[in-house]
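Ticket #4471: structure output looks truncated?

Reporter: J.K.
Steps to reproduce: submitted the chain below (326 residues) through the standard prediction queue, then opened the result file.
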Amino acid sequence: MLSFLSFEKSFDQSNPEGMNNKRSLTTIKIFYLTFQCFLFGGFSFSQNTTNQEKAYLSLNEVQHPRALLVLFDGGAGIASRIPKECSIPDSAMNYRVKTIGIDQSQFLINEDTYQQIRAAILQAMKDYAIHDKLYMGGFSLGAYTTFRFTEMAVEKGDSSVIPKAIFGVDPPLDHLALNDYCHRELERSCPLEEANKLGKGEARWILDYYAQNFGDAEKDRANYIQHSCFTYGHETGGNARHLHQIPVQVIHEIDVNWLIQERCRDLSDANVTTGSRFINYLYHHGNPNAVITITQDKGYRSDGRKHPHSWSIAEPIPTLEWLLKF
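Returned output as attached by the reporter:
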């Protein structure tokens, strides 16, 4: 479900799925300047190392790394923004875990995007002589990317890039649930002018994105399910069926007062609702390593603003030690 997904966008969509690139770029730039509140974007790489363009960004320095951790950011999905909000790469050095970031900001993982991420991971593993200890995680959209990429790798039997364990920070998982949220948001009467403007703006944008990429939610449900990490009520959990053997942790912060006072929302609008259903499905379908972590008063942005939808709710040491158990 939606709640507060960091829709801070820079759209450079390499595979537009039927959308016109120039029109999409212009639309998103306008939306970003006007609302600055949600998700998506395009797939671009910008890291430069020894005069060669790399498909990933190095986030820490580790001598003789024992493992590779791949992180994906939320919002515009730009890897260079991760260090500002996330201290996991710094802590990972103490565990000899090389950490990289990969740019990815589409709200669907098509085959081209999958192959780009795959190539970046394999290149990093080669560069740092890491053979099989691969972990992945992300925040918001980046968590969606982590889970959906892993599901696709398992479905393909692509063992070279199937991670040992994955985690997601307050992820949006279910496109159908998110579609329902957007309609609730448009119907909501919120006396907070700025929250009302942002909430309705993001909801309209998401619904337009869905209409252009997936079709009508009633008539074309299969498209929504195909690109979701999890589908609540589906007998196989949708794509979650591919995660029965993968250790999965979702991390959420429940702050109902913040939702009410800052967004005119309630707990049913928070990502934790779908997140708990996701873990419940996995756990009771044979995955004892599917866990949910609930935090309190950990959600703060780097500028000091309280915000439960933040990288900071993933505490570095517990998160790393959980990953490294596998």
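Triage note (M.O.): checked the attachment and the full token line is present. The longest helix spans residues 193-213.
Status: closed, working as intended.
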